[in-house]
Amino acid sequence: MAAKRLLEVESKFLFEPSMVATLKSNGGGPPFKRLEILDKHTFRDTYYDHQDILSRNGIWLRLRKDRGSADLEAKVRISGDFARSTFDEVTDRKVIADLIRPHLPQFNEEKEHFGLEVLADFATMRQEFRADDKFVIALDCTDFGHSVGEVELMAVDEGTAHQEIDAFMAQYPWFFKKGKAEGKLAAYFRAHSNTSAS
After folding, report:
1. What is the pLDDT of residue 198?
2. Buried b (16+ CB within 10 A) or exposed e, 56-69
3. What average pLDDT score do residues 83-104 get?
4. Rounded Cα–Cα distance for residues 23 and 31 (Å)
5. Residue 29: helix, strand or coil by DSSP?
């Protein structure tokens, strides 16, 4: 019996850049039980599609340039929306081609980026933390002026993972503000008057 794939389960949240210093010092009330500062880096994402067909079917094909590497991957939405979602991440080019083919049978498997057009292109500065030995907190600031946070878990059972994330965020309302968070792509489309976010 094949092992079940790990899924990326995430919830986005509003965050104020002014709160980062408080987060780094774990100075909120109540403080996190444990907080590790993991990383800070900048990467560039270029998303590809044709007439928004892939994105309308929950497939986001992107090239991420990060620390000298350029990796093509497909993020496949299993459930959720722009704010609270579960994704399968696929990096094998042949598997990506198999995902694209039912939606875009005319695509060119031999061409770079499968011959698709650029849907979005932007850079993100990300700061990452691990809280309470389990939850990854990612704070993203884009080059077009949008900021959004994510709490992420890699899990097999998405339902349980979402419950754990919800309970975790509810413990620390001083940092996880209530309100609808807008994801980077939705904000990009809005900023560029692109109807793909509708």
Report:
1. 35
2. eeebbbbbeeeeee
3. 94
4. 9
5. coil
CA distance 123 to 43: 6
How far is 99 from 92, CA to CA, in rounded Å?
11
Name the residue type at position 110: E
DSSP 32: P
Closest CA to 184 of 152, 145, 151, 153: 145
Distance, in Å, from the CA atom of 166 to the CA atom of 176, rounded to the nearest integer, reads 10
Tokens 């399968």 locate to 88
pLDDT tens string 53-62:
999 999 999 9
Q: In sequence order, which residues have a C-beta less than 8 Å from that of residue 78 and are 6 or more positions away?
A: 7, 85, 86, 87, 88, 158
Mean pLDDT, rounded, for 114-126:
97
10: nearest Cα among 112, 114, 113, 128: 128
What are the start-end ranges of the H helices in the chain? 20-24, 53-56, 93-100, 158-171, 184-191
Residue 5 is classified by DSSP as: P
pLDDT of residue 121 exceeding 60, the answer is yes
Cβ-contact 41, 60 below 8 angstroms: no
Contact in structure between 73 and 65 (CB atoms under 8 Å): no
E-state strands within the chain: 7-13, 35-49, 59-66, 69-80, 84-90, 117-131, 135-142, 147-155
Task: Write out the two tokens for 109.
Answer: 């498997």
